[in-house]
What does this fold into?
Amino acid sequence: MDKIIIYGGNRLKGEVTVSGSKNSALPILFSTLLTDDSMTITNIPSLTDINTAISFLNFIGKKITKKGNTVTVHSSYRCKRYKHIAPYELVRKMRASILVMGPLLARLKKVDMSMPGGCAIGARPIDIHLDAFKKLGAEILVKNGYIKTFVRNDLRGTAINLNFPSVGATENILLAAVLAKGETIINNAAREPEIEDLANVLNKMGANISGAGTNKIIVNGMKKLSGFTCHEVIPDRIEAATYIIAAAITKGEIILKKVIPQHLDFVTNKLKKCGLFIKETEDTILAKWTKNLRPQNVKTGVYPMFPTDLQAQWMVLMCLLNGYTSYIEENIFENRFLHVAELQRFGANITINGKTVNIKGVEKFSGAPAMVSDLRAGAAIILAGLAASGKTTVSRIYHLDRGYDTFEKKLKKLGANIKRVHYDDT
Ligand code: EPZ
It folds into this structure.
């Protein structure tokens, strides 16, 4: 198993190019099931989750290749040969596999989906997805660990009122409704930029979607969708914010390139209130440490509020504001504080009270051996190692490889003393 070794304390300085968004690339890849035509998708990050999605789609019957950060979807034989089964060994690797349901329901009118296993950050049920498919005319049978979903006639557009603006459910509904008969209205839809990116791709395929990015999305179903020449995935706003926090905690100065600053407005406004120097242009962000940093309490929420995917990284910054107290409230997932115990190994002073953590800033972290439990907790541990004095050894970094494109290489280029080492399990 690979590990990452860090000798902390270096100030990070220089430029970093942000990769394409994992959480945009994944639904876009699943949208390719909606047509047999070819298309090219660029700015796809090099991540294990992307490889998992591509092998899953090729297992179903697509012909997808990836070269560098470009994915080519070759025109495939008729979708009738698509498999309609999403097996457990694939689904357990990546929850986003559930996004295969919408397109297969739309094209094959059936999909047998293995129950998605829980994951480190909570149960993460899919009831909102299934309720929406039923409203669109699907029937559901749970048998032998599979959710068998099928449509006797056609998916029919309707009004769907989400009880929670679930990102995945909004995406799955879009992926089904684009080929349903009639109009679908999604009320209380998720408003993430990744939803807008998916809607833009679907409209390039000939879909008729309006309102993406707002809480009300209207879809007029089409008979057929076609390919398109090219689409560039939007930049990863969570990766971008992670590097900004890296600058803050190492007293550094980093210019982020290929970002869309407004996608992380809430976070950068919070960081400006902390006292960090931030200057944005159309596609760059300059983040520069200042010596008067003060804490800002955050409550995670749905977009455009503070993103849950940045909660762990933010905690590292709050822990290092010596002498100040702050709190973080996690409102999206019920078990997303697994990184607290790891940060305490560096010397963090954190107390968990239900869905809130209370933090007392300390003068510094000391390096420690640490273990990654989930993707974003892993990013927080790397940040802690960068800020700590001495050596940090990070294990189970396969979680990191799911969501951070060449993380240690980009950090090394910014001046971090960091390397990946391979340990034989023998
Ligand atoms: C997406 O997950 C992201 N993943 C997550 O990023 C992100 O944390 C999350 O949205 C919230 O922003 C991808 O886009 C691939 P949700 P998703 O459906 O779609 C509950 C990362 O680190 N819920 O908005 O699964 C659910 O349990 C990952 O990149 C139901 O109860 O998020 C959770 O508590 C982690 N029933 C909350 O809603 C459902 O049917 C948010 O889930 C669906 C969700």
